[in-house]
Amino acid sequence: MAVRSVLKMGDPLLLQVAGPVTAFDTPELHALIADMFDTMTALDGAGIAAPQIGVSRRAVIFGIEKNPRYPQAEPVPTTVLINPVIEILTQETEDGWEGCLSVPGMRGVVSRATHLRYSGFDQYGKFFTREVRAFHARVVQHECDHLDGILYPMRIKDMRQFGYKDILFPEM
Fold first, then answer.
1. Measuring CA to CA, which residue among 16, 139, 35, 3 is closest to residue 77?
2. Would you call 79 helix, strand, or coil by DSSP?
3. Which of 74, 98, 131, 143 does the annotation list as catalytic?
4. pLDDT tens digits, residue range 23-55?
5. Which of 41, 47, 84, 156 could be a cystine partner for 143, CB 3.0 to 4.6 Å?
6. Nearest residue to 63 via CA among 42, 39, 40, 29
7. Which residues are registered as beta bridge partners of 57?
8. Residue 164: C-alpha distances to residues 43, 101, 172 (Å)
9. Which of 70, 92, 87, 83 lies closest to 139, judged by CA?
10. Residue 143 annotated in active site
11. What is the 3-state secondary structure (H, E, C) of 55-72?
């Protein structure tokens, strides 16, 4: 389909709570999902949310096998997740570096739950649920935050652990 422009931090749409997807298996939804995959792939993202490309709907995609932006990351299955619900299954959290296509060139340390269950629908309206840990759980939380108008810098506790990637990691 098409690589779309990604909205950047500061755009008011990124701060809105996205509305639910109400119609599945439609040409419009399939086109949106295709554009999200094209955009994520072109920018080496691990995931992307519909609001990041200007569509205020509760749809995210994610998945990586090998990714130059996350060279140490474990594989995450390619997933379309619509109208997600997240259930945190532990109080244990882990700090980790995150980046975002809407905050280009920057990284920050964010604390995330290490174990969760998520459920929702695929683009055809089929319900599914998964229990996940570690990086997969981090990706789901990051992408679903976009649906609630939250960007990862809003979750950073220590601003000394936030900055430009080329300054923080000059060897990369």
1. 139
2. strand
3. 143
4. 999 999 999 999 999 999 999 999 999 999 999
5. 47
6. 40
7. 19
8. 17, 13, 12
9. 70
10. yes
11. CCECEEEEEECCCCCCCC
Q: What percent of the chain has pLDDT over 70?
A: 97
- Tokens in use for 124? 């055809």
* 84's tokens: 């997600």
Give the integer Cα–Cα distance in Å for 27 and 157: 42
User: pLDDT (tens digit, 9 = 90+) per residue, 115-134?
Assistant: 999 999 999 999 999 999 99
Residue bearing tokens 């994520």: 40
Task: Assess whether pLDDT exceeds 90 at residue 68.
Answer: no
Domains of the chain: 12-168 (3.90.45.10)
DSSP 81-119: EEEEEEEE--S-EEEEEEEETTEEEEEEEEEEESEEEEE
Length of the chain: 172
Write the CB contacts of 145 (distance below 8 Å, at least 6 apart in sequence).
151, 152, 155
User: Measured between alpha carbons, how far is 5 from 45 in angstroms, rounded to an integer?
Assistant: 13
Q: Is the pTM of this model over 0.85?
A: yes
